[in-house]
Amino acid sequence: MLGRRGFLKVTAVGAVAGVTGACSTRAGETPAVDRTGAPAVVVTMTPAEADVDLGGLAVRTWTYTGTVPATEIRLRKGALLDATVTNRLPQETTVHWHGLAIPNDMDGVPVLTQPAIAPGDTFRYRFTVPDAGTYYLHSHVGTQLDRGMYGPLIVEDPDDGSDYDDELVIVLDDWIDGTGTDPDAVFANLRRTGMKPMASGGPPLSPTLPLGEDGGDVTYPYFLVNGRTTRDPQRRDYRAGQRIRLRIVNAGADTAFRVGVPGVPLSITHTDGYPVVPQRADSVILGMGERADAVVTITGSVPVVAAPEGKDGFAMMSLRVDAKPAATDVPAFVASLRAGAPVNTSTLTPLPDVVLPQRNPDTTVDLKLAGPLAGYTWPINGALYDPPNGGIELARGQRVRLRYVNTSMMFHPMHLHGHTFQVQGPAGPGPRKDTVLVPPRETVTVDFDTDNPGRWIVHCHNDYHLNGGMATFVEYRG
Ligand SMILES: [Cu+2]
């Protein structure tokens, strides 16, 4: 097993592009050189139907690289990513590079930033990655995110001062595709039947119920860690005393997860790629699209467990020491996760060098979140997403305050493309993030600078809410 130092050394000589699967260096093409002087990381992705084994569960689904999740892309801050995507799906598609503040025409949002890639067509994404951190890529078309159309994207910074022995990417997902139905059928059914009646009040939010009672709109038969069910979870071997940096990604479509390791505190060091003052926690809750990095020190075999918020079941993988099975009673630990008070990443304290300079907002934009209305629609400010109509005009060089005003009885993880925002905490600046949980009936305020011109979608990262219209966009020129 390579330690962190060994891994970075391998990365530095450009081995990243040699990952297995459908990502590979293309022969006969001279790679471009990025500003670090290293060759570009060249990948090819071929979205297509595939038969996938999800750990004791065989499904036919849609993937980027024949695997779920897609083959990891890993590169250094400042490196050039050169990704050629050839669509073999029966439907158009794109790739969105979630959380990266890259040029607008590389953002992968149909209509706003590019025409979607038609079946049989090829699109080349080419950009330098500006910031280190834990990111992921996914389709921004229809309900494809709730198939297998996602994968981790890790940007390393060898000089970031992090201290750990090894790292482990943990991609969480809620799974229904190929189990007798598919996400398009699920969405059509939501549209036809509308929604379950909402409780008029319900219990108030509390530290142990931070998102309220309503966990989501879809009942999933499976929850996955790194593409595997609990029938045959992934196992990784470690030595006692090793400090493991968990890079946790919620790639789910309709499910928030509470994540914890029995008997082992998390030291949360980053959210959405950006560093925070390390926060000790028993568990962390992540909405769809959110990420957290947490260091754990393991002394014996333990599972990493993710409990879906407001839903039955769980996801897990195993960290093993001396090849021993963990002694944990996992269902009992899931119950303790549910009874506990998970850390919401929006309450973390940013490191000083990622706090935006003090400035009063030049403009404030309220986004009123509502729904579900008849036909399963989720409007923002009374309107459904209708690009290229309905954009919010901004000017370059401004400090913009967004207020996500949730009038609904359900939580919404709100995601802004092309920027990171500073969550406005009760006692000063909160963390830098690109996706933030907005609990039912609450308002969350975030500030960002208009320093990356284009048309940028702002949307709920519940894939069914997005398909139900819960998006708008901001635009400004360079
Ligand atoms: Cu939503």
Automatic annotation (TrEMBL):
Family annotation (PANTHER family): FI03373P-RELATED, MULTI-COPPER OXIDASE
Domain of life the protein comes from: Bacteria
The Plastocyanin-like domain covers 55-159, 169-299, 360-472
Protein name, as recorded: Multicopper oxidase family protein
PROSITE patterns listed in its UniProt record: MULTICOPPER_OXIDASE1, MULTICOPPER_OXIDASE2, PROKAR_LIPOPROTEIN, TAT
**Oxidoreductase listed as a keyword:** yes
Q: Does the keyword Oxidoreductase apply?
A: yes
Which keywords does this chain's UniProt record carry? Copper, Metal-binding, Oxidoreductase
